[in-house]
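User: Predict the structure for this protein chain, please.
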Amino acid sequence: MVNSNGQGNPSQENIGFADIVMEAVSASGTLYREGLGMIASENIVSPMVQKIVASDLHGRYAEGLPHKRYYQGCGGFDTIEELGIDLTKQVFDVPFANIQSTSGTVSNIAALKALAKPGDKITAVSTADGGHISHARMGAVGLRDLDLSTYPWDEERMEPDVDAAAEMIREVKPKIALFGQSVFLFPTPLKELADAAHEVGATVMYDGAHVLGLIAGGCFQDPMREGADVMTGSSHKTFPGPQGGFVLSSNEDEIFQRRLNNSVFPGTCSSYHLHHVAGKVIALAEFKQYGEELSQNTVANAQAFAGALAAEGFDVLAESRGYTASHQVLTRHGSLDSGAGAKAAQLLEDAGIITNMNMLPGDTKALTPSGLRLGVQELTRVGMGVSEMEEVASLYARVLIKGEDPDAVKADVTQFKSEFQTIRYCFNPEQTNGYPF
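Assistant: Here is the predicted structure, written as structure tokens:
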């Protein structure tokens, strides 16, 4: 029975469902609060962003652009989005920014919709070589029914083979030349490849999802000055905001910019999660103040961690190039397609270290790969530095090389992590312990 106020007597079964969800949320929070979050595509948000994301905005709509809405009641959000667009243009030094996209993949779908028609040709990095699934037939490229060709790959340098890829672009004459990866250790040799793409009339698109914070912090490469016409990205990886995406462009043509805006709304989003957009704006303001230092420390930590893993005896990829220039580190744990990466990831989680298995060059089976893809951005965000990276590497070695009981290692992980509970590089870090659960 429900009364006139919408109140009723919930069944014990429904209360039980709610309890199960709350317990699961709490357990997930405990796992990350007490453990080492090292998945390269994740990050944590500041106390102020947490507060904004939990605001009334989470249930509201604002279709359209500031002051050109299809709903009433959007005056406050107009202020938020206008400020966010302006901050994004400043942080990334671009003339165009759309901050409505709900993820990096949605950003890619929107950009592909704006830049090509079904059946058009596109070139991109193969998923086997580290390309993102949205760059493949199984993802956004297939959704737009684009004719995909993948770049020849230089396995030692972990980047497209510059000469062979440029030759391929000239032969294929794609509508879009797409660059960027999910496994992203080093800057793309973009200028040379963008020149080849522009020669044949292609639009150059750069997916900076993983390294967007490093780009904004001046620590990776500068795609907009190296030939990219459009850059997409996530707002929650090395850029430390809430889940969402960006679509950016160096093109000042109003018609081109309108196509990009229209491809986001109404092209791929109706509600674009106003609470997350507002959270992005806070993250942009925090990044403008702290982002350069955060980015520099993230790269330094990744390089230190890679060197420490190698010193412990791990097979760390790209040794000849210094292992990494990003937040990511790649390790091989067995023969190709052996599932050794999956086994290593599970043992590490048992010890309170959260990572992900990953295909490495030569692997062909996504569920039984040989490697791990590791990220240090979350550890950096809670104040860890180069000296702590050696301790983290020793914990890996205890589990995966020395074969210690993961439960025993987990106790030490929890003790170690207890010293790093405050989110840094943000406004008012001492307001809360940072981890909400």
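The CA atoms of residues 80 and 278 lie 6 Å apart.
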